[in-house]
UniProtKB/TrEMBL annotation:
Name recorded for this polypeptide: CIDE-N domain-containing protein
Gene3D superfamilies listed in its UniProt record: 3.10.20.10
Keyword Membrane listed: no
GO-annotated biological processes: apoptotic process; regulation of apoptotic process
Native organism taxonomy: Eukaryota, Metazoa, Ecdysozoa, Arthropoda, Hexapoda
Organism: Rhynocoris fuscipes
Amino acid sequence: MEAEEDLIPYKIVDVTREKRFGIVANSLEDLVSRACEKLGLSGSVKVVLEQDGTEVDEEDYFITLERNTSLMLLTSEQSWEPPGRSKGANGDQIDGGRGIQGLLNRLQSDIGHVSLLGGCELELLSDMDPDSLTDIVPDRVFLDQLKEASGRFLSDKRQAKEAMDLLKLYHRQTAGGFQEGKKGTLAQ
C-alpha cells in the first residue's frame, strides 16, 4: 500500500481542455494509469505540460514537477495546442477569445504588459507571422519588436524554470541523503 506522503497531486486535462480533474500519483507510470482511467483512454498515451506542451517521458523529470502541475494526456493522433486555439475543419488554426488578436489589442495599449504574460501567450506571440497580422495591427515595426521581445521573455522564463527544476532535483537528492544518514545514526 502506498504511503500518503508519497502521493503528489496533479491536475489532468484532456486535449480539448474541457475535462479537468485532480489526481494523486507517486510515479509517472502511476499518473498515466490513473489519468487514462479517468479520461477513458486506452493504448499508448503521451504526457505533456499543459502550459507549453513539453513532453514528460522520464521519471527523473517527472519527480521535478511541482505539486498541482497541470498535465495533458494525448493519444498518438492528438497534438498539443496553446490554450484558446483549435484546428478548423480544413486544419487551419483558429484563434479563440484569448487568441492573438486579443493579445495584440491589449499590448497596443500598454506594451509593458508583455513582461507579465504566461508561457503560452509568449509562445503564441513569438511564433506569430507579422505579415499575416497587419490587418489587425497595421504597425509592422511594432509587430516585429513584439515578436522579438516575446521570444526573449519566453527564453528567459524557460531558463529560469530549468534552473528551478535543477535546484528542486538537487534539494530532493540532498534531502533524501540527509534522511538516510539520519536513519543510520538513529539505528546505531
